[in-house]
User: Fold DAK2 domain-containing protein from Corynebacterium sanguinis.
Amino acid sequence: MANPPALEPVFDVAHLLSWAQRSASELDRRRVEINQLNVFPVPDADTGSNMAHTMAEAVREAAKLDESASLVEVAEALAVGSMRGARGNSGVVLSQVIRGVAQSAGGGEVTGEVVAEALSSGVDFVERAIVDPVEGTVVTVLLAAADAARDAVGKPLDKVVEAAAVAAREALERTPSQLAALRDAGVVDAGGTGLVILLDELLAEVTGETPREPQAPGAVGESHGSAAHLEIMFMFSGPVDELERTLLDAGGDSLVIARASDTEAKVHVHSVNAGALIEASFALGEVSDLRLEVLPDVEEPATSERLIVAITPPGSLAELYSGAGAATIAPEADEAATVEAVLAAIAKARPREVIFLPNGLMSEAAVAGVEKAAGETVEHVSVLPTVRLVTGIAALAVHDAALPVDVAAETMAEAAEEMRTGVVTHEDNAHASGAPADAVAAACASLLEGGGELISVLYDPVAIPSLDQDLLSTTLGAEVRIYPADSLGAIAEIGVE
Assistant:
């Protein structure tokens, strides 16, 4: 009796969710490894974090759906979450691959043909998104995977996915021969490494087998473009084609535009003149979720007499600290990763003196770890008692680079310790009868009862779209300085001096 034909592996909505979750987990697990390998276009050590964050946001969006959600609905949610959460070139590219999955899943099931179509659509979306593509990056790896999957159409799902995964892995290994920056460092591409992880996890989900553990890739490259001073990311609603021309005309570099439609997109661009690009974008349409990050130099390793390092969330707070002269490090859920990032910033700057502001965003053990490790390579390390972000601002305000480091650090520490602080949380406001701005004013008044002349307020611009500085100053009878602070984690932080 003849054996029955082998059944085509079934890939339904549960498998799609499982693949997304395990991909997010694996990208997060290997985030630090990939970050440490970043060499192109700038060594900003964030490729792994960007891809892990983007995939986590995709999963978070899908998790909002009911258990009865269809495969199409889940795929669309993953696409929306990844686009809105995309960080960096690599995150934007990842979002476009997931967009390809969503577009190809319209039939309600995933087959080998759907996988091939999804990868091909991803290539189309990515090539449209990246204005200045470079061979030897994630685009090259994605193209190889799409070609292999298309050639395997007609075979069972697992064979199509296997063909794509193998081709991607082989293309990744060839990237050093295609890009001088990778070849000089003897490494492969970072974004391509992330894509190989996604395909390996997809193959494991389809076959039920443990994914192949890739060899450590060595230092890894980001996606494309050339070095610039600032990385600018935002959501844009308006004429996307016109925005693309405008950003290029204004000197934008490494431009990536992930389109949700002709009037909505996630934008990633590098520039030495961020102000002009941002103003032009606001003039054309609606800009939201604006983030700026300082990109490191790619020339000679920097040296400095004194380096101030501050732990602060990304966005407007990081801009505020950077403007005051500090190198900013975003806190990670994994404190070990935060410690590594701080030490990497110190190693890159090669200072003789370090002043460190933990701002209450690291445990005592982690802070001690930074102090001990930095002390092995730096002549002087001062850790300031900045227990909140607002006290860090007070410390930076009195820093005098002309003073000896021990005197400067002592002055900064005194400013931080003498500031009386308070926090207005979302929970506090839930129990109050007035608007969030009223709760902030009340908290300021309460802190002023102990005396003071200057009030600093960091506030969440989402919770309080408009906070009137002059009105607060008049009402309280003291000088007030307000700073919008996205990612604050509270309605406001208040400091009185």
The chain is about 50% helix and 15% strand. The first strand starts at residue 188 and ends at 189.
